[in-house]
Amino acid sequence: MSVLSTGLSGLQAFQRALSTTGHNIANAATEGYSRQRVELVPKDPLRLGGSYLGTGVNVQTIRRLQDDLIDNQVRTRLSDHSSASIRAAYAERIDNLLADESTGLAPTLENFFSALQDVASDPTAPAARLVLLDQTESLAGRFESINTRLDEQRQLVNGQLENSLEELNQYAQSVAELNEQIAARTTDGHPINDLLDTRDTVLRKMAEKVDIARVTQDNNTIHVFIGNGQPLVVGSGATELSFSNLSGDPANPSIGLKLPHNEEPVNITRFVTGGEIGGLLETRTELLDKAQNQLGLMALNMASRFNEQNGLGLDQDGEIGGDLFELPDIGVYPSMRNSADTVPTVTFEDTSDLTASDYQLYYTGSNFQLTRLSDDSTVTLTVDATDPDILIGDGLRIDTNALTGAVQRDTWLIQPTRNAATQLEVTITDPAKFATASGALADSLNTGEARLTDLRMSTDAGNPVTTASYLPAAIVFDAGSNEFNVLSTSYGAAAGSATVESFRVLDKNDADLFTPIAVEFDATHNQFVVGQERFALDSTGTTTIQANGWELKLQGTPTAGTVLDVNVNTIAATAPQPAVTTLIGPGWELDIKGTPDDGDLFTVELSKDRPGDNRNVLEMADVQGERLLQGRATLQGGYDTLLADVGTQTRGAQISRDSTGVALAAAQEERESLSGVNLDEEAANMLRFQQAYQAAAQIIATSNTMFEALLGAVR
């Protein structure tokens, strides 16, 4: 091997080194560029006699200074930071929305209860009632406003999810195309470094969107997987992700993977984590879903409780109070894969048993199973006594009669509380309809130790409050039987237009309350006959009959021969010793504590014509301190819990954002130290390679001189 060839090999090698150094300098600001280095190795030596003579240098490869482990760490840190950043951004918005006095619930809730107290101070004041009506509407409006603002955040999340998925699909297609180019242009195992850099840059952008895993193949192509091993890129092929309603929840579109052998996308939402997409999904489920469900639970419990309490009193017109709020409908949605679009009818059985959760109803092929999605637990269902197709659990009443065609694995999403805050409406428009007065009054005339502790209108659906329920009742204790006896307020029906207006005991000592008494109407003489006594029909319309220690008022004119029986009902309750005995009459319940004497008399009568009666509105005001939410929290306490939960998540997301930002910076710095272009180093290399190139050229010149000398010697 000649000196010329040795010099020529050096000249070529350092020319490549200079070109590579120039390429590094030119791409110093190129995103994702990894610096390159020419790897030089000596050529095979030449054996001359007993020794070996060097023959020059070869360029082994142009190496890309990159480490898969470091790059994978950068992608992981990038995915974590992107997820935490998006969660923190939305959490801060939601936290500000709920905590701000101008947009939050707490001030409006306080104003509402303050208005109740003002009405309790003067139930007849029209101004106070108008303020209460206004505050009631404001409270319902604030529930709606907060939920609407949360819905707006949900729409932003869904819009950002859709955009991110479109970008991810584009990145996946780019990786597939780069795979094809890399496979085609890889020679002797030496890939094109710049294409690898481009592909890694795209992979980092993918990692910003979602957690990914890559697997390198022998031909330098890669497969990319997301979620639980779902393929996004396989060689030169990319799988498309969709964003549509796959779960049945119209407010939460799902991420679908379109596989070649499936006509419909496969729902992979629950497997997708990390990156911007994972952070958005977590924001939707952990922040928005929980906040709206908790807010809806508060709205439902509040509305149901006030409807109940208003129904236990009398309004300014002397009528039984009606509902203050209209309870919202329950959202029920069939799965897109169900055999039919039919849905069960779901209503509220008992709002106090509700939870802040969505539910999934699943058909096993033989029966229905209800799962509480907040903790993935199975709800114990009881069968309604009147219909085996009606199931009851967690405060819900589920009528499955419409699901006769259901097949195994059919599912339905049930959302009792999700939109309850938005749909809450005030039903009254007249402030006089606030039932501020108690529905009934109780009094006692007794010598024993028994006393009345509580009188309330019945909340039992089997013992409803009606106008007839408000007729006075007399309760007498019979020591002989150790039982309370209630004079029936369901008087014998009278033909014609006569009705019983009231009954009361005048003298408990003379009143014969244990013997049925007949009151007969004599049409010939227009008189009522009670035993030997007669009472003339009053032309004004109301006839008062007083006999045997009691007074009965009849309104209207009965037909001839009508007999009204005044009867006694026995309550199956023994005398308290000294526990509380609850006496249940038509439409009312009375608690008596202590030991009564024989013949002690307790009376229950309609609380009418008492304009200053504020007992029922005081009960409404006391709701402020009641633990309405599953027996654990008051309305304000429930809202405070919601604020605390959102605040905790916000702070956690902020800490995660900051810590992952530090970790990402460290990983990027480590990558930069290996793969980044150092201009000072490249300048030194340029000078070194230039000198080496000049020296190699000098070797060639020397070889030429030697050759010329040799030619001159032989001429």
Automatic annotation (TrEMBL):
<keyword id="KW-0966">Cell projection</keyword>
<dbReference type="Pfam" id="PF22638">
    <property type="entry name" value="FlgK_D1"/>
</dbReference>
<dbReference type="Pfam" id="PF21158">
    <property type="entry name" value="flgK_1st_1"/>
</dbReference>
<dbReference type="GO" id="GO:0044780">
    <property type="term" value="P:bacterial-type flagellum assembly"/>
</dbReference>
<dbReference type="GO" id="GO:0009424">
    <property type="term" value="C:bacterial-type flagellum hook"/>
</dbReference>
<dbReference type="Pfam" id="PF06429">
    <property type="entry name" value="Flg_bbr_C"/>
</dbReference>
<dbReference type="Pfam" id="PF00460">
    <property type="entry name" value="Flg_bb_rod"/>
</dbReference>
<dbReference type="InterPro" id="IPR001444">
    <property type="entry name" value="Flag_bb_rod_N"/>
</dbReference>
<feature type="domain" description="Flagellar hook-associated protein FlgK helical">
    <location>
        <begin position="92"/>
        <end position="325"/>
    </location>
</feature>
<dbReference type="InterPro" id="IPR053927">
    <property type="entry name" value="FlgK_helical"/>
</dbReference>
<protein>
    <recommendedName>
        <fullName>Flagellar hook-associated protein 1</fullName>
    </recommendedName>
</protein>
<feature type="domain" description="Flagellar hook-associated protein 1 D2-like">
    <location>
        <begin position="337"/>
        <end position="416"/>
    </location>
</feature>
<dbReference type="GO" id="GO:0005576">
    <property type="term" value="C:extracellular region"/>
</dbReference>
<dbReference type="InterPro" id="IPR049119">
    <property type="entry name" value="FlgK_D2-like"/>
</dbReference>
<keyword id="KW-0282">Flagellum</keyword>
<keyword id="KW-0969">Cilium</keyword>
<dbReference type="GO" id="GO:0005198">
    <property type="term" value="F:structural molecule activity"/>
</dbReference>
<keyword id="KW-0975">Bacterial flagellum</keyword>
<feature type="domain" description="Flagellar basal-body/hook protein C-terminal">
    <location>
        <begin position="675"/>
        <end position="711"/>
    </location>
</feature>
<feature type="domain" description="Flagellar basal body rod protein N-terminal">
    <location>
        <begin position="4"/>
        <end position="33"/>
    </location>
</feature>
<keyword id="KW-0964">Secreted</keyword>
<dbReference type="InterPro" id="IPR010930">
    <property type="entry name" value="Flg_bb/hook_C_dom"/>
</dbReference>
<comment type="similarity">
    <text>Belongs to the flagella basal body rod proteins family.</text>
</comment>
<dbReference type="InterPro" id="IPR002371">
    <property type="entry name" value="FlgK"/>
</dbReference>
